[in-house]
Structures are given as structure tokens and as C-alpha cells.
Amino acid sequence: MALCLCVHWLDFRAWFRADDFAWFGLAPGVHSFHELARALFSPRAQGTIRPLSERAFFLAGYYLFGLHSLPYRMVIFGTQFADLALILAIGRRIGGSRAAGFWAAVFFTLNTSTAQPLGWACVYNEVLCAFFLLLALYALARQSEAADRRTLRRFRMLEWGAFLAGFGALELNAVYPALAAGYALLCARKGLRRTLPMFAVSAVYAAVHMAVAPVPRTGPYAMHWGISILRTLGTYWTWTVGPVYGRLVPRLADWMLPAGIAALSLALAWFAARKVRAAQAAGVVFCALWYLVTFAPLLPLRDHMAEYYPYIPAIGICWLGGWAFAEAWAAPRWTPRVLATAAAAVYAILMVPQLEASQRWNYALTERARSLVEGLAGAHQRHPGQTILLYGVDRDLFWNAVRDRPFRLLGMANVYLAEGTERSGGGQDWGDARDFILPGGVAAEAARRGQLAVYDVRGPRLRNITSQFAALPHDARLPERIEMGDRLTGYLLGPEWPKLEGDHRWMPRRASLRMAAPSSAGRSLYLRGNCTEEQLREGPLTLTVTVNGMPLPAVPIAATSFEAAVPLPAAVIGQAEMRVLLEVNRTFWPPGENRGLGLAFGTIALR
Amino acid sequence: MRHSHLTFALAALALAGCKQPAKVQVQQTIEETPQMASEVSMGDSKAEPQLAGGFYNIEGGAWRWTARRFTVVLRVPPGSAQRGATLEFNFTIPGVVIEKEKNVALSAAIDGTPLPPETYTLAGPFTYKRDLPTSLLSGESVKIEFSLDKAMPPAGAERRELGVVANSVALHAK
């Protein structure tokens, strides 16, 4: 444990970044039991449902500790310490000595796949899943050693409890019955029958999960069943016994990485073969089984190989390595000791520098995210009534501290990026950064009206550059996108629009606005909004749209939430602006309102 | 058992009664807003907002590559609306550019009004210097758009279009 804390010290000190903020973002939306249940159990992020390791971890953590990272780290490292204790205990049973378990825990601590699970809070699911798998397996092992029925029943309950709780950590938990059956078959055959009901539970879980959150057929999370599985396994093998992504310390020659991986692979294979010849195959087979079974669900993900995926499978190889190392040192001769020490040294040389580099990279990113988020809190405190525009955001900062909207946790609806931000860095992938860009014309108008505070983010602290920014010439073109809930674009709306209501505006029967005209053919006017069920009782509504005096095809609205893309006529292409007139055929008068309401709009944009 | 219930109740009370810390630490921002400058040194990151386009990141702490077209905004120095000013652009043409292009012509425009261009046939440091009449200096700031007739297109690992190496640009009152 001391070694773990020492080796992973930067992971322990890391703050939050990227997806962490998406999970924290659930917290402000929870005000009732129903909302809590939805936050805990609805599928999110590629259809995952991980109520314990992600939802409860971040929701409870945020409620109790906000964005103070130490308590989260204590939970993550506490779980990791428990994992190490269980690796030691099970490794002792596999290798037949306490030293085998001890060295397995040491090798696991040095494995580069542990960097992200310990340093990035949203990958806690790996650490917690490992805990439940190991705890259940440990309980299974203890059942075969139980001297009385009471102890047997106690460990059986513990096994089932850990197995069931594991589904709250990670989908991978579904493979536990295969591990348990393998262990029972190899080491405690009497317990084999008791593992069978667990297969049924995993099957039901898999069926329900597939029904609620089907596997994507396209994109990086699509599954590929072919020869690519073997290629993926081969790559993951090199990431298990060598550094992830095959990175090496710059001071070492390129040949050292493949040579080191080959040497370690041969050493493990030689030890395994020796054990099989000596009729001690059970432990070896179980280590391999653990590795393959826990990797199996990940191998079809050909296009999404993550550096933390070997975290749980690597435990099997660390058991084998720990066993080999302990046995070599228990031998009476010096040759096996020297060879085992040399292999361990090669492993450390391959792993430790990359482990440190990976931690430094992660820590630096989290510190940048902390600086931005805490700086935004300061900016919001100073300028509570102003919208914040960020200048100088680079791609790393965008992905790690802006994209998942941590500013919502500070009570800020929107934070924008300066125009041109998404073009900096020459061809880098900026994802959906365009949604965060405040068009130059809108920014200039907002700065002129005193609605905007502009901050340069490139230094260690946010620097207010509002007056410098306001004095710059800005692109005076009208925006292509109007978020109706954003007061900064209010100057583009006609006087008939009522005041802003949350993230939308209700129109009366007729309403107008100005926006950019398309510069090329094939563009549409995108409209997104809502109406009430009461409005639809008399049948669908009809929205007519006129652009610069030219009527567009009418839009029928038959549901309370609508999206429509109306093709724009060629005559508006290249015009200085579009004057859009919206008219709905029926309005309603809500109780207490002295105006007739038509439709509520969220977004109007060119697409 | 009763004892454990009591402990749990006390722990829950203690948790509920604890004053929760602020959800996030607040970092103070730097609010002394820098003013727009009449002279921009390419190594000064604070002046970057005035580089309106076509400049790449700072290199060597002192200079930046430009693209073929690049734009800077400068504050009009006091008194120049009455007496005029001088535009000075200090830059370097790297040997690799002259070897490849043989000569490079640099032109500039102040708020859309063109200034006389200049052609360079040698590599090395140069100053593009032009007198500006008072008629161009009536506002608080001016936008200066530079353009080169040639630039090195992106090639291989270099994904940028490269023009010249900029060192500084300034408006000096006469």
C-alpha cells in the first residue's frame, strides 16, 4: 500500500477533468426521489448503467464534498488498497505462498494500466469492479476451506453479495460466473454446481441491459467479430507486460521495448510450461482464464482500445508473475533468482517511466482544469450578471475543462469561446466546439452593451481582457444560430417577443428575428421548440415561416416537442441577412396570462 | 444492537449538522485589463488578442511564423491624428523561403487603404516601414492587413502555411 501511494502520488493529488464533470453535472438536476432514481439508473454515455461506481460515487461525493478532490481520492485509493489485499490473498492460494501473493500485488501496482483508474475519477468503475470480482472470488475460495456450515454459508452470502453489487460497478462483472466456475473446476470442484445459478443472473442482466441500452452498430463502440479480435488481444498483451500504447522512455533504444516484452512473455511461458509438466497446471490455467475471460467482452471493440482496459485482466498475469518470482527465490540455487530478478527489473524499466509520464500528463491536465473552473468561479463572483467569454482555450483545455460544462455546477448557464478558437492548433479534432463559439458580431454587441466579460485563460490565473477585446474589430456578420434562451442574442429578435423564460422564449401569434443568410445552396432553417398538450387537443398546429418576404413550406406540429428543417430558397443565398417571420395558426391563453402564446422556441439555426 | 443504532443515529446527526464546505474553491482573477498597445512584440502573449489572424504560436519566446495573410490591430498613438504616424513591421525572411521562392513581395493595407508594397530578394532581417497620413488615423485603433505574394504551402509534417518570421509591429507618432 505504501508502494502504491508512493508510485501513484501524482494520481493521488490529481483533480478532476473531462467526463468527471458530466457525472457531477447530474447533481444539480436531482431534487426528488424520482429524479434521483433516473440519475442513478438511466443509461448514459454509450448506454452504460453503473449506479455505484459512477452515479452514486459522483452524486454523493458532490453532495458531501463538492469539487474538493481529496475525499474522492481517499475512496479510490482505499478501494485500490482493498484490491491489493485481495490480490495478495488470492495470489497466496494460487501460488501456494504468501510471497507469491505479495509479488503479484507489487507487479500490479507497477502496471501502467493502473494509472488512469487511480488518477481519473471517472475510471473508478474499474477499481470498484475489480474489488467486487476479487471479493467474490476470495469468498468462493474461502468456501472450499470452510470447516463448518456456518462459515460456508457466510462466505457464500459474501460471494453472492459481491457478485450482485458488482453489477453496479461495471458491465464486465457479468463474466464472474465464468471465473467462479473456472476456479471451482480447477481448485475446488465441489463448489462447481453452486456457481451455475450465477450464469442465469448474468444472462438476465445481459438481456435486460441489451434491451435498455442496445449495443451501437456504428462508431467506436461498435463490435467487430473477426480476426481483429486476435489483433486486439495481441496489442493488449503488449500493453499488459509492457507499457500501454507501447511508449518507451526516450533515453532507451527502440529495440528495447519489443525485446523486453518478448523476454517477459517467454519467461512467463517457460514458467507456465514448467508448472504444467510438474502437474501443477491448475493455477496457471486459472491465471490465463482470468486474463482471457475479463478481456473477452472488450476484444470486439476494435476501434476503442483504452489504456485502462488491461487494468482488471492484468491481475491474472500479475498472479502468474508473482508466483514465478516467489518460486524462483524459494529455489536453492542462484540461477533462477538472478533470472527472476532480471525479468522483474525489465518489467520495472518498461513500466515505471511510462507510469510516471502518464501520471504527469493526467495531473497537469487536471490542474489546468482546476485553474479554469476555480477561475471561472472567481469571474462569476465578480461579474454575476455578465456572460463569460474565454479567450485562448486550446484543444486540451476544451476537451478536459469546457466540453462537459463544469460551469453549470457554478450556476452559470453558459460560458462561451471566442470566435476562431476551434480553428487554432491546425486541424486538431475539436468535436462539438462550435456549439460553444460566440459569433464575433454577437460578442461585439454584447461587449458594447456591457453584458460580456472576456477572460484570457492562458496564464496561471484568468486575466480580464474585456476592454482589449472590445476594441478589436469583429466580424459584423449576423450569427447562423440563435439560442432563444440566450439573452446575448436578444437584440436580433423583434419587439413582439416576450422576455426570456429559462432556456426558451414563447412567441405570440407572429414574431420576427434577424440572422445570417446562407452563403451556399442546400441549407435549411432548423427550428426546435415546444408547445403544450392543451394546444394540440384541437389537432396539429401549423407554423408558417417567411424569409425576406418569401414563404417557406408550412411546418405541421403534432407533438409537444418539435424539430424541423425547412429548406431555404436559392434567392436568399449570399444576402446580407435573413428577416425571418414566424406565424402559428392558433394561440392559447394560459391562466393568469394576459397574452396569447404560440410556440416556445429553443434554437433557430442554419443547417 | 441498541448501541450500534445509537452510534448510527449520532453519525447521521453529525453529518447532517456539519457545515458543508463551498462546492468549489474560488480563484481570484486578474482584473487589471490590459489596454490595447501601439506596439506589439511577438513574444508578448498578453498582446495576442491584437493579433487578429494569420499568426502562429510564439516560438523561441520572441517570434512567430505568419501565414501568407496576417492581420494585427494597433492602438493609434496619441498625437498621430494631428501629425501622422509611421508603421514599422520588423520581420525576418528565412533562407529556406528565398531559396524556394527567389523573392517575396510584402504589402499592407490600413483599414482597407493599401500601402505601397516592397519586394525582398535576400534572406535576413528587414523592416517594412511606411508613413501614414493623418486621414487614416482618426479612430482609436487601426486594423493592418499584411499579405505576401508567396508562402510555403503545408508539406509533410508541417501542416502550416508559412510566410515570414514576425518579430514586432508598431505605430510610432511623428
Task: Describe the protein's architecture and organization.
The complex is a heterodimer of chains A (607) and B (174). The two termini of chain A are 55 Å apart. In chain A, the strands form three sheets. Chain A has a five-stranded mixed β-sheet with strand order 3-2-1-4-5, with helices on both faces. In chain A, strands 6, 7, 9, 13 and 15 form a five-stranded antiparallel β-sheet that branches. In chain A, strands 8, 10, 11, 12 and 14 form a five-stranded antiparallel β-sheet that branches. Chain A is 50% helix and 11% strand. Chain A folds into three domains: 2-8 and 15-363, no CATH class; 383-476, no CATH class; 482-606, Galactose-binding domain-like (Jelly Rolls, Sandwich), CATH 2.60.120. Chain A has 607 residues and is α+β, with helices and mostly antiparallel strands. The longest helix of chain A has 49 residues, at 334-382. Chain A has 21 helices and 15 strands. Chain B has 174 residues and is of the alpha+beta class. Chain B has one domain: Galactose-binding domain-like (Jelly Rolls, Sandwich), CATH 2.60.120. Chain B contains three helices and nine strands. Chain B has helices at residues 2-17, 80-83, 95-101; strands at 39-41, 51-55, 64-75, 85-93, 104-110, 113-120, 124-132, 141-148, 165-173. In chain B, strands 1, 2, 3, 4, 5, 6, 7, 8 and 9 form a nine-stranded antiparallel β-sheet that branches. In chain B, a hairpin with a 2-residue loop joins β5 and β6 (113-120).
